[in-house]
Amino acid sequence: MDTPKDCDDDALIDEARQGNELAFRRLVECNQDKLFAAMIRMLGCREDAEEAVQEAFTRAFLRIEDFNRQSKFSTWLYRIAFNSAISEARKKRPRVSLDQQFDDTGSETIDEDARPVDALMLRDEQIQVVHQALDALSEEHRAILVLRELDDLAYKEISDILGISVGTVRSRLNRARGRLREVIEAIQANVSEQGVSDENKWV
């Protein structure tokens, strides 16, 4: 059974930098499951998630000398994976960033007391609806919800991963939560209307 020592990032990184492929393979084993789960939530497709994780580890291996240890290895790895995933998602589904829309209008509302969506996400019957709603969001909003609401990362770690300030993390998260609720409510309303329509067919 693996012990915490087996995943000692500093020791493994030192060995990986010296060309020890087994050490880097151990870094992969220590981080791949969590990263894969995050990529599935981010990309909504198992094949795309597998490709993103593979790409992230390949880039990490080639750039291991650039890792300066100012953050955790997992944070650095997430940054590589999420930046790549966001870029690929934009290529497949070009859209104007919602954050850019707020910047263009010069308006932004930050509600520090905004209700998190954790409880909503924990309801089994909402899982499919939440995933459908996440896929409808902008890449920036989907990423920050995955990192905060699903992976439960701290604001500072999210800041490091996405390359934005903690203040921007808070405001973007607030907007993303609000947008997610709007999309979920629209999906649920559509389902309800469809249900009524189906019932009327038999009246």
TrEMBL record:
The record's section on Gene3D superfamilies has: 1.10.1740.10, Winged helix-like DNA-binding domain superfamily/Winged helix DNA-binding domain (1.10.10.10)
Entry-linked InterPro entries: RNA_pol_sigma-70-like, RNA_pol_sigma-70_dom, RNA_pol_sigma70_r2, RNA_pol_sigma70_r4_t2, RNA_pol_sigma_r2, RNA_pol_sigma_r3/r4-like, WH-like_DNA-bd_sf
Which Pfam families does the record associate with it?
Answer: Sigma70_r2, Sigma70_r4_2
Q: Which family does it belong to?
A: Belongs to the sigma-70 factor family. ECF subfamily.
Q: Does the keyword Signal apply?
A: no
> SUPFAM superfamilies recorded for this chain?
Sigma2 domain of RNA polymerase sigma factors, Sigma3 and sigma4 domains of RNA polymerase sigma factors
Q: Which organism is it from?
A: Stieleria magnilauensis
Q: Which residue ranges does the record assign to the RNA polymerase sigma factor 70 region 4 type domain? A: 128-180
RNA polymerase sigma-70 region domain residues are: 27-93
What is the protein named? ECF RNA polymerase sigma factor SigW
What is the top-level taxon of the source organism?
Answer: Bacteria
- Keyword terms of this UniProt record: Sigma factor, Transcription, Transcription regulation
